[in-house]
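Run: sequence + zinc ion -> complex structure.
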Amino acid sequence: MKLSFNQATTLENSDLANDLELCEQHGYDYIEIRTMDKLPEYLEQQSLEQLSSYFQEHHIKPLALNALVYFNNRSEEDYQQLLKEFKQMLEYAKELQVPYIVVVPLVTKEKILKEDIKSSSVAVLQELAELAEPYGVKLAVEFVGHPECTINTFEQAYDIVEHVNDPNVGLVLDCFHFHAMNSSMDTLKQADISKIFILHMDDTEDFPIGSLVDEDRVWPGHGAIDLDGILSVLTEKGYDGAATVELFRPEYYEMPAEEVIKKAKETTMQVISKYAKI
Ligand code: ZN
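>> structure
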């Protein structure tokens, strides 16, 4: 399994150029680039061509652009804005040769019927996939394990992706989000593994289901998630994508970025090496 780094892990103590140097130095294979802050910040000082050359000249490669947020159940005006943003991401993906764009469902306090969530999500994903196809870019839907997210369990996300029925549309399986709304291990066991594009590795403090937030994440293997359960299913089913460590913990932002990047690799490998060569 290839090892990947999500920039949320060093959100407040690093930048893209620094993350790249440190991840390269510490043997990561991939990075997930944050397009909402870290990439625009980088582009204030350096060019897209420089970033592209960096990837050509180093081992580390871009895995995904993170993220197109709130893709479903939007107003027409918001949807047009979203499409504009998505098209810009496609241009970045082409220049940098990024295989995946992560797309995140709407988070809202408003109650929306599941059938309306599904019909909007399927239609939007089909349209986005059509736009992405000429670029060779795949869409990875990341459900969020929180009650206010319109797609908040693995089974709900899997059902939507299955209905889209496009080999270029799949899922991010984030262990934190899987645990946080008590997603179904049985559905995971029955899933078509080719629909899981990216695995996000993390762990969490043991708060009750429905109350967990990203800041509760801890080093993989140091928390309450049944990582062994998830990984053994993925291994059995022949998952061959990357494992991206993704933490959002404020106290890790107080540490030097290099320490975080080293420790994130160490703890992730401790969990994963039981299942796959990394
Ligand atoms: Zn994630």
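>> summary
The two ends are 5 Å apart (CA to CA). Strands lie at 3-6, 30-34, 61-69, 100-104, 138-142, 169-174, 196-201, 203-204, 217-218, 242-245.
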